[in-house]
């Protein structure tokens, strides 16, 4: 096993969807056993947009069950809840002294979320990138398997690490986004309006707990058009997204057949959606069923979190002590 460190997290704001799976989870599973992996449920992060803490713990259990159902093995990786590691908020505080209001305000995700919740533009939302940096740097993470939407945050994490190292002495490595040498994935919403997301565009997002019927219905309704009129035309985003999904869940022959049909201007989107829908059902079903089984075993889920907390804190406390020595 390589001892390079991998860190990544998923917010507990709703059900996991195909964007989470292909942007993050699939890489987590591929990396386990090959790297020293820390994967966490980002429950503090979820309070920036979902301030009602009532369901916080239940949502942590749910995301954790989904993580394991997707193939993560708690014996091979450290799985924990962000709020169980007090060293993270301490490092967050230190990094906030190195983060400037102007750069935080310029972050695309901040602007987007501030537009979406004008009555709750809280400091947590603004400083999301510093908390995310603390999540990664607390373990001296080198690789961060994330979707394309997180690229900008990761660049900020490198900046904060650099600033800390420059001012107080070499402490943190500069983390980079990781996707096995290929470009980072972005799964668009099926209505062509933005990315798939846990709490927006629910009818155009496929969740890992959607029933077979719902999956088929959502894919049937996915945005298409009359099809190209010129051979080898460029694809609009929403068509490219359907091809991407087919590439991810269907047999390659099927994908190539429809690609050829598209390039020859005789694509039948109805047939393509039928095939994609059936393949998606086969892909999601085992994950959904395993999640239901795991969620029923709360004792097991709690024990995974407890073991994860101990392992993560052992590592985090080494880093925070090192940082404190440099800082004060
Ligand atoms: P979040 O749901 O915002 O907590 O994101 C958790 C992980 O899923 C991050 O690594 C994101 O980059 C990834 N992710 C979320 N939505 C998408 C999407 N639509 N396409 C690709 N990756 C995504």
Description:
Helix content is 55%, strand content 7%. It has 14 helices and five strands. It has helices spanning 18-31, 43-46, 56-69, 87-96, 101-106, 108-116, 123-126, 128-137, 151-168, 212-220, 237-249, 252-263, 269-295, 298-327; strands at 5-11, 36-42, 78-81, 143-144, 176-177. It has a three-stranded parallel β-sheet with strand order 1-2-3. Strands 4-5 form a two-stranded parallel sheet. The chain is globular and about 70 Å long. The mean pLDDT is 95. Bound molecules: adenosine monophosphate. Adenosine monophosphate binds at residues 10-11, 19-20, 23-24, 146-147, 149-150, 185-187, 195-196, 198.
Strand order of the largest sheet: 1-2-3
State the name of the first-level CATH class of the largest domain. Alpha Beta
Whole-number mean pLDDT: 95
Radius of gyration: 21 Å
Q: Find the CATH topology of the largest domain.
A: Rossmann fold
CATH architecture of the largest domain: 3-Layer(aba) Sandwich
The total strand number stands at 5
Ligands, ions, cofactors: adenosine monophosphate
Overall body shape: globular
Helix content: 40-55%
Topology:
Elements: E1 5-11, H1 18-31, E2 36-42, H2 43-46, H3 56-69, E3 78-81, H4 87-96, H5 101-106, H6 108-116, H7 123-126, H8 128-137, E4 143-144, H9 151-168, E5 176-177, H10 212-220, H11 237-249, H12 252-263, H13 269-295, H14 298-327
Parallel strand pairs: 1-2, 2-3, 4-5
Helix pairs in contact: 3-13, 4-8, 4-14, 8-9, 10-13, 11-13
This protein binds adenosine monophosphate.
Adenosine monophosphate binds at residues 10-11, 19-20, 23-24, 146-147, 149-150, 185-187, 195-196, 198.
